[in-house]
């Protein structure tokens, strides 16, 4: 019985496609048949995660559990979820099945801690910041991190929503000044801690792979290690 | 009940990811929740289609039916299959379910015929050429087409397999001289009639979108029209 990776996606769909593409591109296969089996559930009508956490909007959990069950029934042997903010519900989701569930937050923090990449600035949704998904783990490991000020955080959120609405150029232009300010404040590395950010910063982050930590890529690298283990 | 697109993929995985990415990029959505629901089955351990048709290798049909059933059980309301050669089994697959199944061959031919894009050269696997998946439809509509000579066809097949083995630069270098010869022979347009070819010719075909007909893109455009119909 071959292992099948289940991608719990749709948050957002562009980030899901990016994760799938990165999985294919990073697999050491010489022909189709050697590639990793994948089932993707990209059912994006999931209530907005940040809206729920910040403004008490509808909970995304039931829709996320629905996607998880689709993947389980389709034969997935491991779940990954290429959305950082959605990991606020990681423990709840883990309770729904016995399948291994590789965390994007853990995958990313493991690399940052192992390579002592700090001071590191966190680029993420306002909900990911408020729920301290990264900060608690980094602080515990003695990694110094920087957060954007409130105005820049609003702009980062705006940039993510611009990208989700199809405006990738405006998203980039809105995000760039925030990076420059964080860099002036001492940031040596950036966690692209929302899976839309590697898409917004695609060209820039490819030019400086040591500076930009792509959470989607860290998740995929750990998934591939799990697959071959 | 929302419609869900089922992508019967894995042939190859890179082409599957490309189809998914093109679906997301071409959807007129302003936020995650407006995007088209998609389930992808990319279970690439499907016997090679060309090997079966040309050299009587194992049949890919049982594995394709398995993926189709996974999509059906997961709630797909329509099937698409981003692989041209696999459409040799299109009629057999259609018999397996009542779901609409949008053909990549039909989608592409409809555009070529409507826009009278000829003379058109066919770039495809040797199996797609031998089984006349495109030629019969084009000839019937009075579209003149060109096929590569035997040596160039071998190189096109080699280029596709190079891409599938991760060697995208060699794939491009192997394919390019075949295009130049077809162009000298009078081809005004090219059908990228294997879903790896839009990946091999990515930059070139984006520069000349009128010349290169991307079968994955034609399939996705028709799928989006179906979704909103």
UniProtKB/TrEMBL annotation, chains A, B:
Keyword Methyltransferase set for record: no
Signal peptide extent: none
InterPro entries: Asp/Glu/hydantoin_racemase (IPR015942), Asp/Glu_race (IPR001920), Asp_race (IPR004380)
Top-level enzyme category: isomerase
EC number(s) from the headed UniProt entry: 5.1.1.-, 5.1.1.13
Keywords in alphabetical order: Isomerase
Pfam families listed in its UniProt record: Asp_Glu_race (PF01177)
Family statement drawn from the similarity comment of this UniProt entry: Belongs to the aspartate/glutamate racemases family.
NCBIfam families per the UniProt record, alphabetical: asp_race
Name of the protein described by the UniProt record: Aspartate racemase
Organism: Tatumella ptyseos ATCC 33301
């Amino acid at each position: 019985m071959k292992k099948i990776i289940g991608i719990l996606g749709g948050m957002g769909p562009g980030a899901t496609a990016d994760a799938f593409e990165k999985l294919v591109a990073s697999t050491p296969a010489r022909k189709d048949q050697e590639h990793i089996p994948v089932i993707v559930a990209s059912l994006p009508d999931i209530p907005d995660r940040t809206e729920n956490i910040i403004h008490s909007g509808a909970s995304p959990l039931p829709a996320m559990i629905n996607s998880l069950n689709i993947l389980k029934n389709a034969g997935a042997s491991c779940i990954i979820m290429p959305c950082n903010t959605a990991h606020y519900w990681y423990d709840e989701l883990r309770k729904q099945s016995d399948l291994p569930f590789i965390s994007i937050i853990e995958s990313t923090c493991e690399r940052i801690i192992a390579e002592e990449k700090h001071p590191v600035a966190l680029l993420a949704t306002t909900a990911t910041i408020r729920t301290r998904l990264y900060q608690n783990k980094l602080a515990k490991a003695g990694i110094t991190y920087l957060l954007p000020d409130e105005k820049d955080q609003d702009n980062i959120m705006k940039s993510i929503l611009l990208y989700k609405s199809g405006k990738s150029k405006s998203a980039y232009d809105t995000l760039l000044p925030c990076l420059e300010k964080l860099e002036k404040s001492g940031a040596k590395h950036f966690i692209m801690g929302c899976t839309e950010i590697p898409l917004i910063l695609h060209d820039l982050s490819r030019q400086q792979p040591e500076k930009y930590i792509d959470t989607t890529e860290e998740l995929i690298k750990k998934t591939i290690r799990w697959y071959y283990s």
